[in-house]
Amino acid sequence: MTQRADIVIIGSGIGGATTALALAPSGRSIVILERGPRLTDSDAARCDRAIFRDGVFRPVEEWLDGSGQGFNPGNYYYVGGNSKFFGAVMLRYRREDFEEMLHLGGVSPAWPISYDEMEPWYQKAEELFEVRGDARQDPTEPSRTGDYNFPPVPDEPTISTLRNQLVRAGVTPSSLPLAVDCEAWLARANTPWDAFPDTTGAKKDAENTALAKALAFANVTLISGAEVTRLGTGASGHVSFVEFTQKDTGTSDQVRLKWLEVGICILSAGAVNSAALLLRSANSDHPTGLANGSDNVGRHFMNHNCSAVLALHPWRKNTAVYQKTLQFNDFYLSGGPMNKPLGNVQLLGKISGEILSAQTGLPVWAARQIAARSVDWYAMSEDLPNRDSRVSLKGGRIVLDWKRTNWEAHQALVRKVKSVLRKAGSPVVISRPFDRQTPSHQCGTTRFGADPSNSVLDLYCRTHDHRNLFVVDAGFLPTSAAVNPALTIAAQALRVGDYINRKVLAA
């Protein structure tokens, strides 16, 4: 082995890029390995047909479900990770999400840390990702040490009218916290940003914010097109090297196997791929995989229960371009059967006829008529941790056996949403649940906790089994809550980076 890095970070999404930025001022040599390339601008980047019908940006990849059937999981592999396509929603978990909460489908357990411990890092993450919002509008908003530095993304006229109609319907709409420069986004083309790739820097995704700032340090290097295949351990049990493949530069398509000696290894490949890599790295000293002394790697997989809800008025057209500026949390903490929590409701990016046709199989002409008259919502409920919901390997292939929980609560949420939207003036409201081919915030496969017997990571995302191995992505989440996890991942990455600087590198 001829190359070495003090710190190797695997993955350049929200977790990996933000951790890299936190560690960059240490002066230690940091190498970020990303299996995908950088996204470049193209006509397809703003073409709904190319994205949603033709799947131009989706990888040719197949996982197996719990019954052994293959499916394309819809994850993305680019510099910046899945955040390149995210809806830019950066919400804090509610204070109650850190506490034990009883749902219709069971118990969402308490976190091993409190909201108050996470709050300063939420504040720093909002500043880093330039989140736009107004904390005064949502009554479920937890206490905070400061407001947003930027005002909310403005409602379009149709959505501004809808906001007033929702108030009359008895709910409390509030502005979504968004990490996007709306004017810069629309300067490239009049499209939504939700699920569209960012190629101009208008979305404050992992590449454009944390990674760009990290790479401004001379000691930080990004290697793209590097797919990590295995982590190796030495006699001490520490991770000693990272094995990866990379194509030769130039005209050759030959793939080379390469290695990096490592001082500290930070795994940020995403909840499914991080767990799979730990399992794939099994050796004679760790026959069930790395960090798996508790047999919890890959277990407790969670994926939000989600449905698209379309509110239609046959004589009223929706002129919105981006649409995605509102939410309401009236049923987040209560309001369901037996007054149980149900979840979050937020606008989707505006659905076009081409998107609706690609998702439903409707003829394009019919889908265009519906989309022109619809306001498009996203209902999201918590999926509860289940030990048997898991990631595993079969013949080297990823098996995702998702055992959905709390579905009764989600169905109740959708019924509530339909009732509200009808009261708000939409006589026709239809819904469609998302399937496993639409990743809805995959998390939980390397959860953190104080007890090594039932968790993979300690409270600072260091693996209990390997003192120089950390996992910083959505895998650490012990619960899914019912809001988008990007901000929580970023906040935890800043918290972990601070810990490594103070307690590991300074030791």
Automatic annotation (TrEMBL):
Region (Disordered), start-end ranges: 134-153
Q: Name one Pfam family in it.
A: GMC_oxred_C
Look up the record and name the cofactor or cofactors this protein needs. FAD
Oxidoreductase is among the record's keywords: yes
Which stretches make up the Glucose-methanol-choline oxidoreductase N-terminal domain? 80-305
Q: Which Gene3D superfamilies match?
A: FAD/NAD(P)-binding domain
Q: Which UniProt keywords apply?
A: FAD, Flavoprotein, Oxidoreductase
Domain Glucose-methanol-choline oxidoreductase C-terminal: residue ranges = 400-493
UniProt lists the family membership as follows: Belongs to the GMC oxidoreductase family.
Q: What is this protein called?
A: GMC family oxidoreductase
